[in-house]
């Protein structure tokens, strides 16, 4: 690789690191601490690529970028910033930046970005829509996990690619879908959401595609479906794994041919919508069980996007809590803040309900406690009340933990045994074997050794079950004759 890289950053240590790393990679590097010098170089036609911080002593990079794009539209600009927010990534993309990297960044990743930018053919940049500087952020968090999400979203804003969002309940899948719509090129069109799990299976096709008068009993007039309502905008299909097979087949045809017919209709209707789907299930497992169409999965999974659970981004909890307290204050509740011990208590919690559970807790704290400062005692009191609800004297035994909770507890204990070290490699296959043996054994026991019934119970074919019995050395239970 070769070329001249123009670096602008007010931090001398960062300039030195970038200079050394880029020079070792074979680039000529010119560094400056202000935007004016950088602009002079660009205006004179110098440099093959620019790396600039957002905050400069004399000018903000977001103000400089439009001038750079107008003067030299083919010059790639990589923006780096310590303001690691969703809106920073979005504004960098809107202003025409080639890439956005949050500080601290990985030097190998930066070198790869530079090489990719210099090797790509130059073309007409896409039309971009600028958003106001003071616009509220739809997504909150500065963790590394969220930075990856922000960067992917920024790249997707000017496309119509289908996105499949994976994430546990409460991680904010609909917020991400709305952000893709509100900051994308379809933002002037409607955003229509439909939750597959909330609609009776026999009504899903009518809800999605609409129906004609007289199509079925009770259809007294024509009713537009969600596809028609979302025309020109975005259709968000939440809990897509709960869609019945018949509707999956019709949805696949829409994605393949770009048209559909209403229930009871005959004429095909062309559609122009962007599809964003979401699920909290492992669809690949459902495919193996015959519950989800593989061809539909690949049509939906053009861009997979995994939202991390809150326990994987605990460093974001303080920012999220402040955000929710601010929302409560705007709704008329008194202002509140957390002390450091309270934040630590929140970060120690498991958060099985993810961000939604945290938001509910913050709203309770804002409404129920008169103190301005929320302490660890307040947090522990609320979390204890939620985790151990009072039971009437006549009630039965406490509810047993779920299989997921039991497995997670076991794994936490297992990892704790190794302290700062890690378990031996091959953990996945060891765990899968430990889980599969009792599962297959229990299924065979429940069906009194009938492999056909056991295979049906497990959702696998008989040959697969036979192989697992052999590989796992499962003791067979023979039926009594």
Strand content: 5-15%
The value of Rg in angstroms is 27 Å
- Amount of helix: 40-55%
Largest sheet: 5 strands, parallel
* Strand arrangement across the biggest beta sheet: 2-1-3-4-5
Taking the alpha carbons of the first and last residues, their distance comes to: 76 Å
CATH-defined architecture of the largest domain: 3-Layer(aba) Sandwich
The number of distinct β-strands equals 14
Q: State the CATH superfamily name of the largest domain.
A: P-loop containing nucleotide triphosphate hydrolases
Which segments are poorly predicted (pLDDT under 50) over 5 or more consecutive residues?
Answer: 124-135, 388-398
**What would the principal axes of the Cα set say about the shape?**
globular
Mean pLDDT: 84
CATH topology of the largest domain: Rossmann fold
Annotation field: number of helices: 20
Give the class-level CATH name of the largest domain: Alpha Beta
Key features of this structure:
4 domains, 481 residues, globular, alpha/beta, single chain, Rossmann fold, 45% helix, five-stranded parallel beta sheet, 14 strands, Helicase, Ruva Protein, domain 3
